[in-house]
């Protein structure tokens, strides 16, 4: 970069010396004045006038000479000061030029050399030198400071890049941990895998803190899953005992209904119905805990019996009206699940509708399967409640912590629907309330070798007065029909049709054998009292739904003839 030349100091011009000329003019003038004063003085005063004039002239001469000398000295001092000032100005200009060179050339050059990797000495040597007593030291100090600053900046940039790489790696590991590792760990732990095996299988983060957090999460979740599984197993085991007791109570009540007279039959029927509701509650809790239902069927169950068994398990069974137009049967392995699912939906519809309104159940057989529609006349569900119900019956909400209070029925419906592939959906009801459409897939239907007469448009319910058709085929072992707890009933309970071939009731060693769906008390009674031939069996052993309703109507007529008010027929028909 070009450097401006220092300005040339101005030349001092010597002023002409006027002091001697002035002195020469002043002395003659004063001498002439003194002579004139002497001449003008009187004759007698000329002596002292001449003395005075001479003295005055001498004083003036001394003063003029002294003033001339002082003025000369002052002029010489001023000239010296002017010369010194010029020298200072020249020096200042030179230093200014050095500073300009330092700022514009030397320091930028040194900085560039240091940035390029040169050392302080190399940078100073490669830069144009500066003039001045202290500027080279300034350049050297600047080069050292610049080299130190460049080194610190390089270290900071290296640390920044390393931090950026570590941050990106940690972000990638965190994303992999949250999106892949932890969901896989949760899935494996819920499958029953131990924490050590899961930790060995997973790709954990390399960082010590994220790795420790992931290991702690896996171990705590494994501990929580073990506690949850143990609690569910204990609850399921306890509920299985309650279920067994409920089934035993039902069996004893039915045996007592067959053995006792009409004076206690109403009380027994009420106990029977209450026990059926208790069985529904225990089955509900057992299914939520991962257990199974208290009943199992090894034969297909006709759809009519499925509906009746479902209605008999709810409290408001008298308000349910069933319209069945199919004689299809559900396979035995799925019969109890479908029955429980329908019971929960019917109970929900009855509970959330006015107590004076009826709940209608329609059954149709389609190509896609059996379509069951349950409609109530209550208030229409809000959109949020509809979405919650749809999510509950979809089977996706399997976490028990998401269940609200005691409203567990829809969660059980969701689990059963997911288990058996049953479709459940909600829609507005034509009766003003809410409708539930249940689609039973064809794979759950049993093939009927000898189907009975078609059930076309028949209506069953608590207020029905028409009797049911004849007994179902022997292969279809229907579940227990619901009973109405009346104080003074006349009709007896419809007995379950016996299968054509009974399994052995005892082992070769004499121990009773319990067939699926029966209690040990029944097996013990079968072992003690072997079944009679068809011609020798008592009438109560071969009763079916039709004969029971015939007995009911005969008892009603006899009761009316005797002056007693006949009771209402049972909800199961």
TrEMBL record:
Domain (Histidine kinase/HSP90-like ATPase): residue spans on this chain: 333-444
Q: Coiled-coil ranges per the record?
A: none
Q: Name one GO cellular component term.
A: plasma membrane
| Gene3D superfamilies in UniProt | Histidine kinase-like ATPase, C-terminal domain
What parts of the sequence cross the membrane? Answer: 49-72
Highest taxon, organism lineage: Bacteria
What is the top EC class of this enzyme, as a single word? transferase
Record's catalysed reaction(s):
ATP + protein L-histidine = ADP + protein N-phospho-L-histidine
InterPro entries with a match to the protein in the record? HATPase_C_sf (IPR036890), HATPase_dom (IPR003594), TCS_sensor_his_kinase (IPR050428)
- Gene Ontology MF annotations: ATP binding; protein histidine kinase activity
Q: Where is the composition biased (Pro residues)?
A: 496-506
Report biased composition (Basic and acidic residues) as residue ranges: 521-530
Per the UniProt record, which EC number(s) apply here? Answer: 2.7.13.3
Which SMART domains does the UniProt entry name for this protein?
HATPase_c
GO biological process terms held by the UniProt record? phosphorelay signal transduction system
Which UniProt keyword terms apply here? ATP-binding, Kinase, Membrane, Nucleotide-binding, Phosphoprotein, Transferase, Transmembrane, Transmembrane helix
User: Could you tell me which residues belong to the region Disordered?
Assistant: 447-573
Compositionally biased region (Low complexity): 461-495
Name of this chain's protein: histidine kinase
- Upper classification of the organism: Bacteria, Bacillati, Actinomycetota, Actinomycetes, Kitasatosporales
């Amino acid at each position: 970069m070009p450097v401006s030349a220092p300005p040339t100091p101005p030349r001092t011009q010597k002023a002409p010396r006027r002091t001697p000329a002035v002195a020469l003019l002043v002395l003659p003038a004063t001498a002439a004045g003194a002579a004139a004063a002497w001449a003008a003085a009187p004759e007698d005063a000329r002596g002292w006038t001449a003395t005075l004039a001479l003295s005055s002239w001498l004083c003036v001469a001394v003063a003029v000479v002294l003033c001339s000398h002082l003025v000369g000295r002052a002029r010489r001092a001023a000239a010296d000061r002017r010369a010194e000032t010029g020298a200072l100005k020249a020096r200042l200009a030179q230093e200014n030029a050095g500073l300009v060179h330092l700022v514009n050339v030397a320091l930028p050059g040194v900085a560039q050399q240091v940035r390029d990797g040169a050392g302080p000495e190399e940078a100073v040597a490669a830069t144009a030198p500066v003039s001045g007593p202290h500027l080279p030291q300034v350049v050297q100090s600047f080069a050292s400071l610049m080299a130190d600053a460049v080194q610190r900046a390089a270290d900071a940039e290296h640390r920044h890049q390393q931090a950026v790489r570590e941050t990106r790696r940690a972000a990638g590991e965190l994303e992999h941990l949250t999106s892949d590792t932890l969901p896989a760990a949760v899935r494996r732990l819920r499958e029953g895998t131990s924490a050590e095996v899961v930790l060995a299988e997973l790709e954990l983060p390399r960082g010590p803190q994220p790795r420790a957090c992931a290991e702690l999460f896996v171990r705590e979740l494994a501990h929580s899953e073990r506690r949850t599984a143990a609690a569910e197993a204990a609850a399921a085991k306890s509920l299985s005992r309650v279920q067994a007791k409920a089934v035993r109570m039902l069996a004893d009540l039915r045996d007592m209904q067959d053995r006792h007279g009409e004076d206690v039959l109403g009380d027994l029927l009420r106990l029977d119905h209450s026990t059926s509701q208790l069985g529904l509650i225990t089955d509900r809790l057992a299914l939520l805990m991962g257990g199974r239902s208290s009943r199992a069927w090894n034969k297909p169950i006709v759809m009519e019996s499925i509906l009746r068994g479902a209605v008999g398990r709810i409290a408001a069974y008298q308000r349910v009206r069933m319209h069945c137009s199919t004689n299809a049967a559900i396979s035995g392995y799925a019969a109890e699940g479908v029955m429980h699912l329908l019971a929960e939906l019917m109970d929900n519809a009855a509970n959330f509708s006015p107590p004076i309104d009826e709940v209608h159940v329609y059954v149709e057989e389609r190509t896609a399967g059996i379509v069951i529609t349950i409609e109530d006349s209550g208030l229409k569900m809000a959109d949020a409640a509809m979405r919650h119900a749809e999510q509950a019956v979809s089977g996706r909400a399997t976490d028990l912590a998401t269940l609200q209070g005691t409203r567990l029925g829809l969660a059980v419906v969701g689990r059963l629907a997911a288990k058996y592939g049953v479709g459940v959906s909600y829609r507005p009801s034509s009766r003003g309330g809410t409708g539930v459409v249940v689609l039973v897939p064809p794979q759950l239907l049993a093939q009927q070798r000898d189907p009975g007469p078609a059930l076309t448009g028949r209506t069953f319910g608590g207020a029905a007065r028409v009797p049911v058709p004849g007994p179902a085929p022997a292969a279809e072992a229907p579940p227990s029909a619901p009973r109405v707890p009346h104080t003074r009933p006349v009709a007896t309970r419809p007995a379950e049709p016996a299968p054509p071939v009974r399994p052995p009731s005892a082992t070769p060693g004499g121990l009773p054998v319990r067939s699926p769906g029966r209690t040990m008390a029944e097996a013990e009674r079968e072992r003690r009292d072997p079944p009679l031939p068809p011609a020798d069996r008592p009438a109560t052993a071969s009763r079916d739904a039709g004969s029971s309703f015939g007995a009911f109507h005969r008892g009603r007529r006899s009761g009316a003839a005797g002056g007693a008010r006949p009771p209402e027929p049972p909800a199961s028909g």
